[in-house]
User: Which sequence fits this backbone?
């Protein structure tokens, strides 16, 4: 009907419908405020699908408009701006399938109008550029709103390329096919609008970042990472567009260590990323995202100068706001740093600069890693209940601490950290090993504690 009816009437009717769905969108927000709950999915889906249809309707009508005072961009800009506003307000609570349909409609619109403008001789190149700007704005608005349901598994693909030895075979059936279709559609829109990386980089928004992530073979540089840094932090903090953001960070940061001195990575990027990623790796509900984020965190810490790396690890191990599982996992990050430091020949410049191959490591982390938490945990006066103990994160933390202590002694044969000093060995025995043995003997009527910790004693 939109293709055969009067183009002017179609545009006028579309304007009326846009006003109607704007009112529907506002009533949805009012419903949310008054009812303290989200409006029904059916209403949100209706608004979103009407938006998807209207976008295509406009694409079919605009090329048939009579040549009058208003240019195509002047007609499109206010209508697409209103539709974009509706999409932004309603998309977050709609169904994933509706998001995919909206992206498909937007890509189709981009293709139709771009082909028409390319073949239209009555408009100059500046008007073509104006239409491209309008379509680009619509596209970025839609991908920002629908980012969490694009599901292109970009982070998984980046992880597979950068950490091939850690990859578990991955398949997601129909979902994977749908994701590939969406990715191809976005790449088609990027190509149709001639959105080069330099064009996308010129406007550091979440939408342009998402499109960059879907641009084949694109790799961030640290200068561009700096330009997009506020957008990246916002996305990580709000759990939005994580797939694209993590993919770009993995592609940028993981290879950096192999090609550049670690000291070249800006600390003003490193510190906020370390703090946010440690939280994300602890609490995100998706196990794959937690794994990708943790490995990314390890790569970021490896880029830090060793004093800063030690400081960040100390914070992870001691900050009460750090999730218990991260305090356990951080011990493995300490072990990575220790083994890396001890791999450098003793007396070399690299070794002398690395605090993880010095007595400072033991002075800083020894009181944390070579003691129970809290230090009085195994005091005889506490009468610690075995099941209560096993219900905490402390058993796993102690297992990691004992494993670290074993590797530490095994690898630091030249005693660069001072752990092998007689006084320090006696201190480890007095503060950690003997209290643990004593507590395990107290629990010798039960097997759980012995099974968990006894094999490491």
Assistant:
């Amino acid at each position: 009907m939109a293709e055969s009816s009067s183009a002017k009437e179609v545009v006028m009717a579309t304007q009326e419908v846009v006003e109607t769905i704007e009112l529907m969108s506002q009533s949805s927000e009012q419903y949310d405020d008054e009812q303290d709950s989200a409006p029904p999915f059916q209403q949100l889906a209706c608004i979103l699908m009407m938006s998807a249809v209207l976008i295509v309707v406009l694409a079919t009508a605009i090329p048939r408009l009579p040549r009058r005072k208003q240019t195509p961009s002047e007609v499109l800009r206010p209508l697409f701006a209103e539709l974009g506003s509706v999409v932004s307000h309603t998309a977050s609570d709609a169904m994933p399938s509706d998001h995919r349909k909206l992206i498909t409609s937007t890509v189709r619109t981009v293709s139709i109008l771009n082909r028409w403008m390319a073949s239209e001789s009555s408009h100059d190149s500046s008007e073509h550029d104006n239409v491209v700007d309008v379509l680009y704005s619509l596209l970025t608005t839609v991908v920002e709103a629908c980012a969490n349901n694009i599901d292109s598994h970009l982070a998984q693909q980046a992880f597979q390329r950068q950490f091939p030895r850690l990859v578990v075979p991955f398949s997601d059936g129909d979902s994977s096919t749908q994701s590939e279709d969406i990715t191809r559609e976005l790449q088609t829109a990027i190509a149709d609008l001639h959105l080069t990386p330099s064009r996308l980089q010129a406007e550091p928004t979440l939408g342009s970042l998402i499109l960059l992530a879907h641009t084949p073979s694109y790799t961030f540089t640290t200068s561009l990472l700096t330009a997009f840094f506020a957008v990246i932090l916002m996305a990580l903090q709000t759990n939005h567009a994580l797939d694209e953001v993590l993919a770009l960070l993995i592609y940028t940061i993981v290879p950096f260590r192999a090609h550049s001195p670690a000291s070249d990575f800006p600390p003003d990027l490193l510190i906020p990323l370390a703090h946010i990623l440690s939280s994300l790796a602890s609490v995100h509900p998706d196990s794959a995202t937690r794994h990708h984020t943790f490995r990314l965190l390890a790569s970021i810490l490896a880029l830090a100068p060793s004093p800063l790396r030690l400081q960040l690890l100390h914070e992870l191990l001691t900050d009460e706001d750090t999730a218990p599982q991260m305090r356990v996992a951080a011990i493995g990050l300490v072990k990575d740093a220790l083994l890396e430091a001890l791999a450098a020949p003793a007396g070399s410049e690299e070794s002398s600069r690395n605090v993880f191959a010095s007595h400072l490591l033991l002075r800083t982390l020894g009181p944390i890693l070579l003691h129970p938490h809290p230090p009085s945990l195994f005091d005889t006066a506490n009468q610690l209940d075995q099941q209560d103990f096993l219900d905490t994160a402390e058993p796993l933390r102690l297992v990691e601490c004992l494993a670290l202590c074993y590797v530490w002694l095994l690898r630091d044969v030249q005693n660069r950290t001072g752990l092998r000093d007689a006084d320090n060995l006696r201190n480890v025995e007095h503060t950690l090993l003997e209290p643990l043995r004593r507590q395990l003997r107290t629990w010798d009527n039960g097997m759980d504690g012995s099974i968990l910790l006894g094999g490491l004693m």
About this structure: Residues 7-35 form the longest helix (29 residues). The two ends are 79 Å apart (CA to CA).
